[in-house]
Write a structure and sequence with these properties.
The structure holds 2 protein chains of 2 kinds. Chain A is about 0% helix and about 55% strand. By secondary structure, chain A is an all-beta fold. In chain A, the strands form 7 sheets. In chain A, strands 3-2-1-28 form a 4-stranded antiparallel β-sheet, with no helix packed on it. Chain A has a 4-stranded antiparallel β-sheet with strand order 4-5-6-7, with no helix packed on it. The radius of gyration of chain A is 18 Å and the shape is globular. The model of chain A has no long low-confidence stretch (mean pLDDT about 90). Chain B has 3 domains: about 110 residues, no CATH class; about 110 residues, Ubiquitin-like (UB roll) (Roll); about 230 residues, Roll (PH-domain like), CATH 2.30.29. In chain B, about 35% of the residues lie in helices and about 15% in strands. Chain B has 16 helices and 15 strands. In chain B, the strands form 3 sheets. Chain B has a 7-stranded antiparallel β-sheet. In chain B, a hairpin with a 4-residue loop joins strand 7 and strand 8. The N and C termini of chain B lie far apart (about 85 Å). About 25% of the residues of chain B have low confidence. Classes of the chains: A mainly beta, B alpha+beta. Chains A and B meet through strand 3, strand 7, strand 10, strand 11 and strand 27 of A and helix 5, strand 1, strand 2 and helix 8 of B. Chain A: Pfam families: WD40. Chain A: It is found in: Cytoplasm.
Chain lengths: ~325, ~600
C-alpha cells in the first residue's frame, strides 16, 4: 500500500472556528486552517485519495487541500442554508453526500468540475445524521422528528422508521460488514436493526434487533468499529461506551468527567479510539486498558468533530 | 497657560512622560529614589520664608502628601481652579521660587471622587511615526485580499437544480463479501491469499475467538505500529504550552517576539527564535511556548528542564542580556513592548521584587534582608530538628508533609511580594472583595473601592511576625475557605506595630474584635492563661497567654493553596515564637479533645 506515514493524520474541528491537523504519534499540531468565523465544525471527512478534507458547519461546506501549505479552502459552497450536519464520500471519491437542517440530503457529483448536485432526498424535518452503507448506494439518515430513513440512491427507493416518538435522532451508523444499522437519540437510547439483502433486491430489508439504554443523556455519535465487532456511543454525560456487537453488551466505558464527548473514531485494528470532547482536547485511548495514550491539545474551545483514516498492512 | 515657567511642573512632566512611555515595566522600580520634583519641592519649601497664604496652604498639602502617595499620572487641567493663584510669570529664577504646581500631587481623599480621574495614558506600539490609516482604507484592503483569495477558491451553488448523473454506472452497488454465518468475518485481503493460508487463518481466528471474542484478527493497523515505534516519552513535555502559539489560532490578538535561547550551543544561540504568541498569554506561558518551539526545532541540541527553571530577560538585539530582573511570570506578555528577549536559566534570587503603590510600602529584598532570611532559614531548620523528637503527633506529620511540599523554588519565591484578590468573610455572613498582599515582611488587606453598601475600611497591615499560621478550613469542589491566624492585637507586647489594623467594631474585619472572633470560631485555640503552665517549652511562658484571631477568605482552591503554601513557607523560614505558640496551643487542644472523647463514650 502506498500510504505513507505523513498521511496518517488526525483532523479536528470545533467551536474555535479552526480545523487542526495533528501528527498522531507525537501530538504535534501540523497545520491550522481557518474555518468560517460564524460557525463551529459539525463534521469532517477526508476524501478517499487523502488529499482533501471536507468540513461542514453552519451555512457552510468547505473543502481544504491537505497537501499544500495554503490554509484557505479550495472549494466553497455558496448559499448554504442552516446547519449542514454531516458529510461523507463514496469510497472512490466519485460523489459526496451532505445532510442539513434544510431537511435535505444531497448527493454531489465530485468528478465533474465544478461539482454539481445529482440527487436530493427530502426528510421533511431537519436531518441530524447521515451515513453511507458499505454497499456504496444506500444511505441511512436520521432526522430531528425521530425518523430513520434508508435510501437507495441508485433506484431512489426508500424506507422510513420511527423507533421512538418525540425523540430526535442524533446519529446513525451502519457496520462495515453491512449487518447492522444503529440509530442513537437524544434520550440516550440506541436502536439496532439487522440489515439483509437478497440478489436483485434494491433496498436492504430492515429487521429490529435490539434497543440499548446506552446513556442517561443525549447521545452525540455512534459508530461501528472497522471489524464490526464494536459499537461506540458518545454522550453529553462525559462518557463513551463501547458495546460488543455479538450481544450488544457493554464492554468498556471511557469517561472525561464533566465534558461532552462529541465525536469518536476507531483505528483500523479496532483497538484504539480517538475522542473529541468539549474540553478542547482530542484523546487517543487504548480500549483494552482504557488508558489515554495521547492527548492533542491546541483548540481553545470544544472540539465537535474529528476525522481519522487509518491504514492496514497486508 | 503658565505651566512652562514652573519648574515643578516641568520636572514632573518629564518624569511622567518617561514613566508613561516606558515599556520595560520596571521603570518605577529604578526611578523610585529619583523623584526630582518632589525632592526639590521639599528642599526649597523649607528654605522659603515669605510665602503668601495660598502658597502656604499648598505647601502644607504637598508635604502632607509626600509621605502618602507616589504621584500618579494625572492631567493638570482638571484642577484649573487652583491656577488662579497670584504669580508673576517672568520672575528671574531663584531657588526659593521652586513652587509647587497646584494639583500635581493629590491627596488620597480625592481618589474617592471618580470625576477627578483622568484616563491612563497608553501607548500603542503601532503609533510610531505613522498615524493609523482610516477604517475605510483598512476595510478596502481587507475586501481586496478576500477577493483575490476567493478567485482561487472554486465556488459551488448549494441550491442548484438537480442534474441526475448521465452515466448509468455512476451509482454502483458494491457486493459485500458475505461471511459464513457461523464464522467471524475475515478481511477481504486475507481472502485473496492462497487457499491454504486462508484456511489456516480462518482456523486460528476461530480458535482464538472462542477464547475471547475480541482477540486479534491479524489486522495490523498503521496507527498501532506507529505508536509502538514512538513511545509516549517522545511526546513533547511542553506540549501543554502549544495552545499559546499565535499562528495556530484564528481571530485572536497575537504578539511576535524574537527570543534568544541561552541554553542552546554556540552557533544556534546567536540567532533568535521567532515566535508568535497569543497576546493574552502570561510570561510563564511564553516561556513554555519557547521551550516547546526550541525542543521542536533543535531536537537533540539541548535537554530542557521544567519551565520554572527559566526566565525571560530583557535583551538588546545583539543578544546581550541586560542586568535587569526577569519579566514577571504572572504578567501578560502584551504588557511588555520588547521585540527581543533572552530565555535563560533563572538567576538565584532577584535583587528587587515588586513595589506596591497602593499602600506606599515597598518590599525590597536588600542584601541585609537576604542575610536575615538565610539566618531565619537556618533557625527554622534547627527548629525542625528539635521538634523531630516527637514524630508521632499528627501535627508533625502535617509539618513534614508541608516541608516536603516546599521545594527549593518555593523557598526562594515565598518572600516576594504578591497580591491576590479574594473575598473576605466578615462576621460569618458579609462578604466583601479585598486585595491580600503577602510579602516576606507583612501581610496587607485592602478593601476594594467599589464596595457599595458598607463603609470603606482602612487597609490593614500586619507585620509577618504577628502572623501565626495559614490553613484551608473548608474545601469544596471549586471554592475554599482560607484562614489566616494572627496574634490578636488586644494583648500587649509586639502588638504596637499593628496600629494600622482596625480597632473597634466599625472597622472590624472578620474576627479582629477578640470576643467576636472567637465567638464564631469554635476551633480557635483560645486558652486561659493558666493552661500555659503545661507547656513543655518553658522558654515561651512569657508569650503563652497570646490570643489569636483569624481572617477568613473565600477564594478558589488553587489560590487558597498558593497563599497557604507561600505564607506557611515564609513563616517556617522565620520560625517565630508566635507561630510556635500557636501550633503548640493547637496541639494541646487536640490532645485534650482526644482525651475527652473516651470519657463521653
Amino acid at each position: 500500500m502506498e500510504a505513507t506515514e505523513d498521511q496518517l493524520i488526525l483532523a479536528t474541528g470545533g467551536y474555535d472556528h479552526t480545523i487542526k491537523v495533528w501528527q498522531t504519534s507525537t501530538g504535534n499540531c501540523i497545520k491550522t486552517m481557518r474555518f468560517v468565523e460564524t460557525s463551529q465544525v459539525n463534521a469532517l471527512d477526508r476524501t478517499p485519495d487523502k488529499t482533501r478534507l471536507a468540513a461542514c458547519g453552519y451555512q457552510c461546506i468547505r473543502l481544504y487541500d491537505l497537501d499544500s501549505n495554503c490554509t484557505a479552502p479550495v472549494i466553497n459552497f455558496d448559499a448554504v442554508q442552516k446547519n449542514v450536519t454531516r458529510l461523507g464520500f463514496q469510497e472512490d471519491g466519485k460523489w459526496m453526500f451532505t445532510a442539513g437542517e434544510d431537511h435535505r440530503v444531497r448527493i454531489w457529483d465530485m468528478i465533474s468540475a465544478p461539482p454539481h448536485c445529482s440527487r436530493v432526498f427530502d426528510c421533511q424535518a431537519p436531518v441530524n445524521a447521515a451515513c453511507l452503507h458499505p454497499n456504496q448506494v444506500e444511505i441511512a439518515m436520521g432526522s430531528q422528528n425521530g425518523g430513520v430513513y434508508l435510501w437507495d440512491v441508485k433506484s431512489e427507493l426508500h424506507e422510513q422508521l420511527v423507533p421512538e416518538l418525540e425523540a430526535s435522532i442524533q446519529d446513525v451508523a451502519i457496520s462495515p460488514d453491512g449487518h447492522y444499522m444503529a440509530a442513537a437519540n437524544n434520550k440516550g437510547n440506541c436502536y439496532i436493526w439487522e440489515l439483509s439483502i437478497s440478489p436483485g433486491q434494491m433496498l436492504s430489508t430492515i429487521n429490529p434487533k435490539k434497543m440499548i439504554q446506552a446513556h442517561n443523556r443525549s447521545i452525540l455519535r455512534c459508530k461501528f468499529s472497522p471489524d464490526s465487532r464494536l459499537l461506540v456511543t458518545t454522550s453529553g454525560n462525559g462518557s463513551a461506551c463501547i458495546w460488543k456487537t455479538g450481544d450488544f453488551s457493554k464492554w468498556r466505558e471511557l469517561t472525561i468527567k464533566n465534558y461532552w464527548i462529541w465525536d469518536a473514531a476507531f483505528s483500523a485494528d479496532s483497538k484504539l479510539l480517538f475522542t473529541a470532547s468539549s474540553d478542547g482536547v482530542a484523546r487517543l485511548w487504548k480500549l483494552e486498558t482504557k488508558t489515554c495514550e495521547r492527548e492533542y491539545t491546541g483548540h481553545s474551545k470544544a472540539i465537535t468533530a474529528l476525522s481519522f483514516n487509518d491504514e492496514t498492512f497486508d | 497657560m503658565a505651566t512652562y515657567s514652573n519648574q515643578h511642573w516641568l520636572l514632573s512632566h518629564i518624569r511622567n512622560s518617561f514613566i508613561s512611555t516606558d515599556d520595560t515595566g520596571i521603570c518605577e522600580t529604578v526611578m523610585l529614589s529619583d523623584d526630582m520634583p518632589k525632592h526639590y519641592l521639599r528642599k526649597f519649601q523649607t528654605a522659603t520664608t515669605t510665602m503668601d497664604a495660598y502658597r502656604r496652604s499648598q505647601r502644607l498639602q504637598a508635604s502632607h502628601q509626600q509621605q502618602r502617595k507616589h504621584p500618579e499620572q494625572r492631567s493638570a487641567p482638571l484642577h484649573q481652579h487652583h491656577m488662579m493663584a497670584p504669580r508673576i510669570a517672568d520672575q528671574p529664577l531663584q531657588e526659593v521660587d521652586f513652587l509647587c504646581y497646584p494639583g500635581l500631587d493629590l491627596s488620597d481623599d480625592e481618589d474617592m471622587d471618580m470625576s477627578t480621574h483622568s484616563f491612563d495614558i497608553q501607548m500603542y506600539p503601532e503609533v510610531g511615526a505613522h498615524r493609523f490609516r482610516s477604517n475605510t482604507a483598512q476595510k478596502l484592503e481587507k475586501l481586496d485580499i478576500a477577493k483575490r483569495k476567493a478567485a482561487r477558491i472554486k465556488s459551488v451553488n448549494y441550491n442548484e437544480e438537480v442534474q441526475p448523473p448521465d452515466r448509468k454506472d455512476f451509482f454502483q452497488r458494491k457486493a459485500l463479501s458475505e461471511p459464513p454465518a457461523d464464522k467471524p468475518t475475515i478481511s477481504t485481503k486475507t481472502k485473496t491469499t492462497t487457499t491454504l493460508t486462508k484456511s489456516a487463518t480462518t482456523t486460528t481466528s476461530t480458535k482464538s475467538s472462542s477464547d475471547d471474542d475480541l482477540s486479534d484478527r491479524g489486522v495490523r493497523s498503521m496507527l498501532t505500529e506507529q505508536l509502538a515505534r514512538s513511545p509516549k516519552q517522545t511526546q513533547n513535555r511542553f506540549i501543554e504550552y502549544a495552545r499559546f502559539d499565535g499562528t495556530a489560532q484564528v481571530g485572536m490578538p497575537t504578539k511576535r517576539i524574537n527570543v534568544y535561547v541561552n541554553m542552546l550551543p554556540e552557533p544556534e544561540r546567536n540567532y533568535p527564535l521567532k515566535i508568535c504568541v497569543l497576546a493574552t498569554a502570561k510570561i510563564i506561558e511564553v516561556i513554555g511556548l519557547v521551550c516547546y518551539k526550541t525542543t521542536l526545532q533543535y531536537t537533540d541540541a539541548v535537554q530542557l528542564k521544567s519551565v520554572q527553571h527559566y526566565a525571560l530577560y530583557m535583551t538588546e538585539d545583539n543578544d546581550d542580556m541586560e542586568d535587569f530582573p526577569p519579566l514577571d511570570n504572572r504578567e501578560p506578555c502584551s504588557k511588555f513592548g520588547f521585540s527581543h528577549l533572552t530565555l535563560a536559566e533563572r538567576r538565584p534570587l532577584a535583587p528587587v521584587t515588586r513595589i506596591d503603590y497602593q499602600l506606599g510600602t515597598k518590599s525590597m529584598t536588600s542584601e541585609e534582608d537576604k542575610v536575615a532570611m538565610a539566618d531565619a532559614a537556618v533557625h527554622a531548620l534547627q527548629h525542625i530538628n528539635l521538634n523531630g523528637d516527637v514524630p508521632d503527633s499528627p501535627l508533625d506529620q502535617v509539618k513534614e508533609y508541608e516541608q516536603r511540599l516546599l521545594n527549593h523554588n518555593d523557598m526562594l519565591e515565598a518572600p516576594m511580594h504578591r497580591t491576590y484578590r479574594l473575598t473576605i468573610i466578615d462576621k460569618r455572613f458579609f462578604k466583601s472583595d479585598v486585595t491580600l498582599a503577602v510579602s516576606g515582611e507583612r501581610i496587607e488587606i485592602d478593601q476594594h473601592k467599589n464596595t457599595k453598601f458598607w463603609t470603606n475600611r482602612k487597609p490593614v497591615s500586619t507585620p509577618i511576625d504577628l502572623v501565626a499560621h495559614c490553613e484551608i478550613v473548608e474545601q469544596r469542589q471549586l471554592k475554599a475557605v482560607l484562614r489566616i491566624w494572627l496574634k490578636s492585637n488586644s494583648s500587649s507586647g509586639i502588638a504596637t506595630s499593628c496600629t494600622s489594623a482596625p480597632s473597634g467594631s466599625t472597622a472590624t474585619l472578620s474576627g479582629s474584635n477578640v470576643g467576636g472572633g472567637f465567638g464564631h470560631s469554635p476551633s480557635s485555640p483560645r486558652h486561659s492563661s493558666g493552661s500555659s503552665s503545661s507547656s513543655p517549652f518553658g522558654l515561651f511562658s512569657s508569650v503563652a497567654s497570646i490570643r489569636f484571631k483569624h481572617y477568613d477568605f473565600d477564594t478558589d482552591v488553587h489560590t487558597a493553596e498558593q497563599i497557604r503554601n507561600k505564607l506557611n513557607c515564609i513563616l517556617e523560614m522565620r520560625a517565630s515564637d508566635i507561630r510556635r505558640e500557636f501550633l503548640h496551643q493547637r496541639e494541646r487542644k487536640q490532645e485534650k479533645h482526644l482525651a475527652k472523647r473516651p470519657l463521653k463514650l
